[in-house]
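Per reviewer request, we include the raw input and output of the structure prediction for the construct analysed in the revised manuscript.
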Amino acid sequence: MIWPFKPSTTKQIARIEITGVIAAETRKNVLKAIETIKDKKFPALLLRIDSPGGTVADSQEIYYALKELGEKVKIIASFGNISASGGVYIGMGAHKIVANPGTITGSIGVILRGNNLERLLDKIGVSFKTIKSGPYKDILSFDRDLTQEEENILQELIDTSYQQFVETVSQGRKLDVETVKTFADGRIFTGQQALELGVVDRLGTEESARRWAAELVGLNPDKTECYTIEEPKSLINRILSKNQSKSTIKSSIDWIQFELATVGQPLWLYRP
């Protein structure tokens, strides 16, 4: 990994950018970046989030790493175009949160999806014989509908994950759990509404978040620079970044791959 450091990182602010759907690759890159911040002793971190969310466990691991980092480093989150569901969860690891008035945020909740192709398979004459060790081993199988018992099991799983989310928002924003539940029903809201609900601290741009971060650690905002810590881009990504249409195609392919890979997994994800 390559980072353009100046001699004294104690007078600089680190920057991590989380974009797109949160999955294993995002977690890996963010955790590496956090270790670098610890090693280089940056006093503050500007966490830029522009994400609809993603997988539960990957979002949780990033959150826990940020909470640990926050014991020594001041963290300011900046919500971009969209910071929803798992993006909100990660943001709870910051000391302060800034959002644009029109940021799409919220979508606090859990979703789990399965596909039932039973009728299609019947039409084309395809059937499956399943041998399993227990009655629920093939739960969410695509060739049959769920039983009521299976629905109950999955609902309990979703409810547990949802409660974890609500409690994290409650702790991070110092709100009562019941207060959080009044807006943690999957709805989305703007940055302006998020401020009124207590989900964010201020309205502003990423630049205003940078200046606030500098002020919180006693640095001059006019002279303090940010250094983005990231993995070097591959050749294909550098080419795609210069061609917007191809980049859009790649994003669509990445989304489809994520959808296929996470069927049957609980997600903290806003689906527009």
